[in-house]
Amino acid sequence: MRKNLVAGNWKMNMTLQDGLALVSEITNMVQDEVTGSDVQVVICPPFPFLSAIGKQLPEGGRFHLGAQNCHQKESGAYTGEVSARMLQSVGAEYVILGHSERRQYFREDNELLSQKLKAALAAGLKPIFCVGESLETREADDTFNFISQQLKEGLFHLSNEEFDQVVVAYEPIWAIGTGKTATSAQAQEVHAFIREQIARAYDAEAAENTTILYGGSANAQNARELFSQPDVDGGLIGGAALKSRDFTEIIKSF
Ligand code: PGA
């Protein structure tokens, strides 16, 4: 079922000590202040902190642990890499795949991402699969084509059962870390388009049940307006996830 969800992507920030302090502030604030909403929260710290941060999250409630990437192979001689099964074994439930920073700096393409998705699902992880266009693509009026291709090549090879586990994140590249948020109308337009593509590739029920997050300079000021859109089910938050007060306000925005 579609749910309201806020995921914090810490990227390559924080030390373990900073991270533990941040999570303790966030969980305290959320427990005190978030009532009457069943919004789910996913914390995605860097690999080395996963286990320790996971232990600090209250069990059985709205908090979940996520990773920021995984390797496409199950195991083997891939020095420096981390498998989906390893993530699952330290308590991760989610994994972000296809973030534009991975696509851009690490040359991850739709073909590779389709393999990573399979690996994550085989290990029992729920992928948060990111799509989104560059400014150039938007200005060339090619956003829908571009996103439809990312979905087709990266995601729609999954079976119905596999697809059920996936969260989609729409992250316009021009909005990530730039302070330039998509307007709620721009976000809604693309979210509705993504849902329509899911209905075509699978069926109306799958489309209705898919959680679609917005990401890109979402913050405590604009979250309420973004989350009020009918097809925006939550957010994938970068910068504002590193500040306990800001992140909590975003979680409270439903
Ligand atoms: P931002 O990052 O909120 O700092 O723009 C979002 C993301 O990259 O997931």
- Unreliable residue stretches: none
- The CATH superfamily is Aldolase class I
Tell me what the CATH architecture is. Answer: Alpha-Beta Barrel
What is the average per-residue confidence, as pLDDT, rounded to a whole number?
97
What integer value in Å does the Rg equal?
17 Å
Number of domains: 1
**How big a fraction of the residues is strand?**
5-15%
- What portion of residues is helical? 40-55%
Helix count, per DSSP? 12
EC number: 5.3.1.1
Family: Belongs to the triosephosphate isomerase family.
Binding site for substrate: 9-11, 177, 217, 238-239
Protein name: Triosephosphate isomerase
Task: Summarize this entry quickly.
With 254 residues, this protein is an alpha/beta fold. It is 43% helix and 15% strand.
